[in-house]
Amino acid sequence: MLLGFGLAQYRSNAAAPLPEKPCPQPARYWLELDPARWPVETLRLGGQRYGTEPLRRLLAAPAGQPQAYLRQQLAAAKLSLASGAEPSPIAATVAEADRMLQRLARPEELLALGDALEAYTRFRRYTPGCR
Amino acid sequence: MTWPLRLGLAVLTVIGGFGWLEVAWLAYQADTALTQARTLHRQGRADRALAVLEVAERRAPGNAELPLEAGELYLVRYLLEGQPASLQASIRQYSRAARLNRIEPFYAASLGQALLLAEQFDRAEEALGRALRGDPHNLEYLWGMGRAKEGQGDLRAARAFFRRALEVREDPRVRADLLRIGGVP
User: Fold this and answer.
1) CA distance B53 to B34
2) Given Cys at both, which of A10, B65, B89, B135 links B105, Cβ 3.0 to 4.6 Å?
3) CA-to-CA distance for B103 and B115, rounded, in angstroms?
């Protein structure tokens, strides 16, 4: 019974806490990280599949145009998700970005969605433990 | 105290002890499985992580954390690969988690978010409504409810929910959606 009691209490005092999920990372982080250490070898962005090299070029390119900016932010968000970062706060935005890249959208819509993704990856607004 | 009473108490104590031991052992196994699954996911081995969770769910069918974690893994797979089967699997896992934990609004809200992605807007509204009853000023739930209304074609109600979410806190995700459906950003 003592053993039972001890094990029942382990959550509150003895056991190590569950490992936290990794923090989301911005485009620059993924660009500087060796692609061999990326969690995936390919990514689907707006219905188009990218291998490691095209992804690196995408992350390195100046994102002056709204669509390029959104594509870059989506790549960073998806790489973060693949590495185990918390998905629930950004799932709807990621799905919306994928859809938006496949249709005609106004530049301000593309920019607004890119900002939302950047808030997740770079500013970590939705993962309080990572700030 | 007479000896039959003492014997009865002793037997009850032993039975209670074993019951306690079993509960603690199941909780320990579930936590170990979650730790293992998160580590495997970090390594990009989502399939293996799901297999670990599946085994743990069979051993501890009353634990809501395990299907919640599995639901997230399937959700990420859907977001990365776009396979509808992964989204359906995610919904099944979230439904199970929400059935097991009816107290925390987060479980119902997670189900609602996955249902939104599957464009099952009526069911999403019901799940998010449950979450909102538990936490009426939660930005995530208000935002989700706005998306459910948008999916049902009720843009006026959608805008109202997005605005209520923005009253809780400024948020670029909600701003982007409000802009998209023609609300004043």
Assistant:
1) 7
2) B135
3) 20
- Residue type at position A77: A
A84–B34 CB contact, under 8 Å: no
pTM listed for this prediction: 0.86
Nearest residue on chain B to A111, judged by CA atoms? Answer: B176
Tokens of B106: 């987060």
Q: Which of A18, A47, A93 sits opposite B173 (nearest CB)?
A: A93
Best probe of the A interface among B13, B74, B76, by most A CBs < 10 A, is B76
Count, in order, helices (H) and strands (E) of chain B.
Answer: 9, 0
The rounded distance, in Å, linking the Cα atoms of A48 and B159 is: 32
Q: b/e for B96-109, b at 16 or more Cβ within 10 A?
A: bbbebbeebbbbbb
- Residue B28 amino acid letter: Y
Q: A61 pairs with which residues across the strands?
A: none
ipTM score assigned to the predicted complex:
0.86
DSSP at A16: P
Q: How far from each other are the two terminal CA atoms of chain B, in whole angstroms?
A: 76
Superfamily holding B3-121:
Tetratricopeptide repeat domain (1.25.40.10)
- With beta carbons under 8 A apart, name residues in chain B contacting A3: 21
Is B21's CB within 8 Å of A84's CB? Answer: no
- pLDDT for the residue B101: 96
- CB-CB contact of A121 with A25 (8 Å): yes
State how far residue A68 is from chain B, nearest Cα, in angstroms: 17
- Going from the first residue of chain B to its last (185 residues), give the mean pLDDT of each consecutive group of 10, the final group possibly shorter: 81 81 79 90 89 94 95 96 96 98 96 98 98 97 98 97 97 95 73
Rounded distance between C-alpha atoms, residue B76 and residue B20, angstroms:
36
* Cα separation of the two ends of chain A: 43
pLDDT of residue A18: 56
